[in-house]
Amino acid sequence: MVKVFLLPIETTSRELDYKIFISCLLAEKGSKVFIGSKSKISYFLNCFESFTYLDKGFHFGNSENFFNKLKQRKAVILSLDEEGAIDFSDGSALNKRYSKGLFDEVNKVYFWGKAQFEKYGKRSKNMKQSLITGHPRFQILKPEYRDIFKNNSDLLKQKYGKFILVNTNTSFGNHIKGDKFVSDNYRDRFPKIDQIISQDKKKFEHICQTIESISTISDIRIILRPHPEEKADSYHDRLCHVNSLKIVKEGSVIPWISASSSVIHSDCTTAIESVMLGKDTISAIPLGLNTNLLCPLPIGVSYKSLNTENAAEMAVSGLPVNYSSNADKILEDYFSHNLDSLNLLVDDMLSESSNSSLIKEKALFAKKIKLFLRNIFIDKSDNLVNEKTKGLDRKNFIKRFGIISKYLKVSAALRVKVESDSLFRISKF
Question: Each residue of 201-213: pLDDT tens digit?
Answer without folding.
Answer: 999 999 999 999 9
